[in-house]
Design goal:
The complex is a heterodimer of chains A (about 250) and B (about 60).
Chain A: H1 4-7, H2 11-42, H3 56-83, H4 88-118, H5 126-147, H6 151-165, H7 168-174, H8 197-250
Chain B: H1 7-44, H2 50-54
The chains are: A mainly alpha (about 250), B mainly alpha (about 60).
């Protein structure tokens, strides 16, 4: 009996299923983000940071998704190298620009939060620096793949780099404990969250909405990548047919 | 809406998210449309994937 992932290994089946799911996931993302924004802008003020804490509602989900996106790439890369799943490389390739975008958003919104709270847009703090390295790692994955013409080789080398680069995730997670200016984890920590429920709920709804958006974007990017590979296959068929006609004419 | 003395930073953060995500969504939508257009052009010229005949999917992997 085929597993769910084995059934999805058929790109035609994946295209049909993702085509049906995409509007629903996109709609869910829009609804959750709209609800999260209303909750965020009607939430009580933070007792220390006042209105500036509202940046948290876009900064924290971006930070979580920057790391989740990389974990997805690493898991897909593992799927390619170990199980040779036909869609694993499609997934890894599709997730890279999306993960890089959320990492960029994490850095930009963090800088815009840092200036009024810390007095500086940027400090070479362990958390900020490790997230910047993650952003460069994403760019490295995209650049490495783009620099190699042989698609199968590019997929393997990119997968190896992605798996090696996963070392950055625990570094980012625990960097706040290394003499960091950045506040420690207040939601994803051992024990109960330290954030007040009046701010926690809008944050969780925004995080759920942005996660659904990430999922919708990833599905769309995977669909695009499958179409791109079909275009490549069609081009090869056309070139081959043209070559065959030319050799017939020469005879 | 009064967002206090740091309103500019708050609006800038939300604007950055909206602009960057809108650009990403637009890029993905246009890219998908472009790839589909290319496939339609090939099919209009009578070019078909071998996988359609063989029932395999050589474009993946």
């Amino acid at each position: 009996m085929q597993t769910f992932t084995q059934r999805l290994a058929n790109p035609t089946r994946f295209m049909a299923l993702s085509g049906q799911l995409l509007p629903w996931i996109g709609g869910l993302a829009c609804a959750l983000i709209a609800m999260g924004l209303v909750m965020a802008f009607t939430a009580p003020l933070d007792y220390q940071q006042g209105h500036a804490a509202k940046i948290m509602f876009v900064h924290v989900p971006s930070a979580w998704l920057s790391m989740a996106g990389y974990a997805l790439i690493a898991a897909s890369s593992f799927g390619l190298l170990v199980f040779r799943h036909p869609l694993a490389d499609v997934s890894a390739k599709a997730a890279a620009p999306i993960g890089a975008t959320f990492t960029l958003l994490c850095l930009v919104t963090g800088m815009l939060w840092g200036k009024p709270m810390w007095g500086a847009y940027w400090v070479w703090d362990p958390r900020l620096t490790s997230v910047l390295i993650l952003f460069f790692l994403y760019l490295g994955l995209i650049a490495l793949r783009a620099s190699i013409e042989d698609e199968a080789l590019a997929a393997k080398l990119t997968a190896i780099l992605a798996i090696v680069g996963i070392v950055m995730l625990p570094v980012i997670k625990f960097s706040v404990e290394w003499n960091s200016l950045h506040q420690p984890a207040s939601v994803m920590r051992l024990g109960a969250p330290t954030i007040h429920p009046s701010l926690l709920w809008p944050l969780l709804v925004m995080a759920a909405g942005m996660t659904a958006l990430f999922a919708a974007l990833h599905l769309k990017a995977m669909r695009n990548e499958i179409l791109r590979r079909r275009v490549k296959a069609l081009r090869a068929v056309e070139v081959e047919a043209a070559g065959g006609l030319a050799s017939q004419a020469a005879e | 809406m009064d967002l206090g003395p740091h309103a500019a930073f708050i609006w800038a953060a939300y604007a950055a998210v909206v602009v960057v995500l809108a650009a990403l969504i637009a890029w993905l939508a246009l890219d998908g449309r472009r790839q589909q257009q290319l496939i339609d052009e090939f099919e209009a010229r009578g070019v078909r994937r071998r996988s359609r005949h063989a029932g395999e999917h050589p474009e993946i992997g």
